[in-house]
Structures are given as C-alpha cells and as structure tokens.
Design a protein that fits this description.
By secondary structure, the protein is an alpha/beta fold. The protein has eight helices and 22 strands.
Length: 425
C-alpha cells in the first residue's frame, strides 16, 4: 500500500477582516469585543496525497489555492483541522517569498538551503548545479532586489528542484519565466516525478495540468468541490469560467459524461441531436488514418429564435491536452439568424496530422459574437461527445511530437564560380 505524503482532515483557515484600520486598534485595546468580520479562506478540506503523486490544483482567483498551499507548508497555521506532512517540503510560492531582497542571490541560496534542512557542506556541493540551472551569470552576486521577475523565478526554481525535496509545491510561479526556461522547468519536473517526487502544482494552464498531473482538485470559495482526473476537473473549471463571462449564465447547460453517447442533449435553447465523424464521401467514421481529411458533423435543433448562433469544437488527446480548438466566429463565418424550431447540420472539415490514438471532442454553442471573439450567451458546452481513433498511416514519414508538419527536405550547394544548385530529396 502506498505511503501517504500529505493528509488534511477538516482543515479550515479563518482571517479577520476589519472595516476600518481603527477597529483593529480598538479590538487590541478593548479585547472583550470583536470588531472583525471572519473570512474563511478555506473550509473543511479533506485531502490525502500519496507519495509519488502529482496533484494539480485549479480554481479562479480567490478560490483558496494559495492559502491551502501555505497551510500545507506551515507558513500559515490552520484555524481548525489536522495537517500531516511526511517528508521534506520545498515550495515555490508567490514571487518574492522565501528570499531576502537585500541579500545577494548566492546568500539567498545558502539561506534557503539551511531553511530546507541542508547542511553548509550539502549546499556547497549543490551550488554549482543550482547556478547552472538558474543561468543568471554574474547576477548571482548582486542583491535580489535588483533582479527582474524572470531572473528571480529562475533562481527560486533552481533552488527548489535541486535541494532533494520529498515534496515540491509550485504555485503558478512558472508563468513568469520565458518560454525556454519554462520548457527546462517542465523537463526537470518530469525527471523528479520519475524519481518518486510528490508534486503539488497550481496553474491556470489547463494543458499543463492535464499533461503533468495524475489527479486534480477544483477549489471554489475556499471549498474542495471536485477531486477527480485532470481532464474532468479542467472541463468543469473551464465551464465555470465560461459561465462567469456569460451575460446570462443561468441559461447555460453543462454536460461532462464519462463516455460519448448518441442520445440527444437538450438545453433550454438548443438540442444537440448528434455528433459524428464523416469521411469525404459522408460515411460515418469510427477511425481514420493519420494525415487524412475528416468532417465533424453536428446536428442541432434550436428551441428558440437565435439572432447570431455560433458553433465551436475542441479536440483533446488521451491525456486531456488541447490539440486544437476554434469556432465559427474565430473562423469568420456567420450562420445567420435562425427561427424557433429550425434544424441544421454544422460541418467542420479538417485534416488530422496527429499521432495514432484516441481523441475526444467537446462541442460549444453560443449566441451573439462580439469584440475579440467573445459571446453574449453560451448556450451549452458538451464534453466528450465523440471519439475519433486515429490509426498509423503506412505512407507517412516516421515522426514524434503533437502534430505532423509534413516537412520536405532540400540541400542547397553554393559555389563561388557558378550559380546555386538545388537538389531535392
């Protein structure tokens, strides 16, 4: 049986809020009467994380994610409940935490190393590795207060991942670094996972959560509302964000099935009669070859008059990463106003230059496109409505990655005494 790394039982954290600064002073001078309004940042959190697991934590700003991490790292004390941690934690929380701005980068490395429980000799042994990973050059001997946010996160992450932690906690900090450093960090995280590191990862990047994590939790108003697979959690999180942006969120329906189904799905405004894949001759597909062309057919019946309907789809791979998404507004297509009771079939034609595997489809229907590709009303979002199996193409090149770029190759020979010669292979 796997060993537990982190256990939270009934954990809550309450902060005091004061309407006016003077109320805090009055409470200190007259302790018999509380003048504060309690604010429960997290409430009754029950969570068990096994050693070696990677857990993604998602939720909107103010949901309680950072407070939860601070309670786990014990930089905050829980108001109620029991927190148990088995192993040494290294945490990369909000930018600036853990580093003294007056110290140099070198001094902060040794300072943080000692806080993490390493001896002076152990830190000296790891220092060159930390410096190489951070790649900030001579700035290592400059005060941290002179660093850019990118340089700061480079050094902080380098310390966090190179001090042999049992548990690593990362709170959205990687969003600050440049793309090259982010790639370097994700590669390092994968290496640590393979070695059995327990990782708690907070991010608004849904693809990163699906790609990195074994499990995910969704937090809302300080409560844990869903503990499930990364894709299930991300689907619900994205749907809730869409509802927040919508001008009439109560009209939107959300469906997150475990498996696709042929049954019609009805909201107050539209019925999705079917979602299916077709080949070039309109025959229904269950599978197709990589690099081939397919059609995505969506049957819709509108239950009320719609002024400006739009249809979109999202394709995800087996780990939940978004391979592609778009909609008729982004494609600069207008369906036009539709009367109540009208049925249509919306068709998207595209190629699938993808690796063999299973890909799921999410369907979205909205009304009223405006501005930078936004909508007045999101009518429905249907996750995992169809599955397309992509098979290896025997005529394709061997390749790896996310998408087949179908490259060609040529060699150019330049000669000082003659025209350039082109040899195509």
């Amino acid at each position: 049986m796997a060993e537990v790394a982190i256990s939270l039982t009934g954990v809550s954290k309450c902060f005091k809020r004061y309407a006016r600064p003077v109320d805090r002073l009055k409470e200190m001078l007259l302790p018999g009467k509380s003048r504060a309004v309690p604010f429960w940042a997290i409430q009754e959190i029950n969570l068990e994380i096994l050693k070696g697991e990677t857990i993604g934590i998602v939720g909107h700003n103010g949901a309680g994610k950072s407070t939860l991490l601070q309670v786990i790292t014990q930089t905050l004390t829980a108001t109620k409940g029991i927190v148990q941690v088995n192993g040494r934690i290294s945490a990369l929380l909000e930018l600036g935490s853990g580093f003294n701005p007056e110290f140099t980068g070198r001094q902060n490395v040794f300072f943080n190393g000692r806080i993490l429980g390493l001896s002076q000799a152990e830190i000296e042994q790891k220092f060159d590795t930390i410096l190489e990973f951070a790649d900030i050059g001579d700035f290592i001997d400059q005060p941290v207060k002179t660093y850019s946010s990118g340089m700061f996160v480079r050094l902080a992450f380098a310390v966090a991942v190179n001090t042999d932690p049992d548990i690593l906690i990362v709170d959205e900090a990687l969003a600050v670094g440049d793309v090259y450093f982010q790639q370097k960090c994700f590669l390092r995280l994968k290496e640590l996972r393979e070695k059995g590191l327990t990782l708690l990862f907070v991010s608004h990047d849904s693809s990163a959560v699906c790609k990195l994590c074994d499990r995910a939790i969704l937090m809302e108003h300080g409560k844990l509302v869903l503990d499930a697979s990364p894709r299930q959690v991300v689907d619900l999180y994205e749907a809730k964000l869409l509802q927040q942006l919508d001008q009439a969120p109560e009209r939107m329906t959300l469906r997150i099935p475990q498996k696709s189904t042929d049954a019609a799905i009805t909201s107050d405004s539209v019925t999705v009669d079917y979602v299916k894949f077709l080949d070039a001759d309109d025959r229904v597909l269950q599978s197709t070859l990589s690099d081939s062309e397919v059609q995505l057919a969506i049957g819709l019946t509108f239950l009320e008059a719609i002024e400006d309907p739009h249809v979109g789809f999202r394709m995800r791979n087996r780990t939940g990463e978004v391979v592609f998404e778009s909609n008729t507004l982004c494609m600069k297509h207008r369906i036009g106003a539709l009367a109540k009771g009208i049925s249509i079939e919306a068709r998207f034609q595209f190629q699938v230059p993808l690796l063999p595997g299973e890909y799921t489809i999410t369907i979205g229907i909205a009304d009223g496109g405006f501005g930078d590709y936004q909508f007045k009303h999101a009518l429905t979002m249907l996750h995992n409505t169809a599955v397309l199996t992509i098979l290896p193409n025997p005529n394709a090149i061997l390749w790896a990655g996310i998408v087949n770029l179908n490259p060609t190759f040529a060699v150019h020979y330049s000669h000082s005494t003659s025209d350039e010669t082109l040899i195509e292979l």
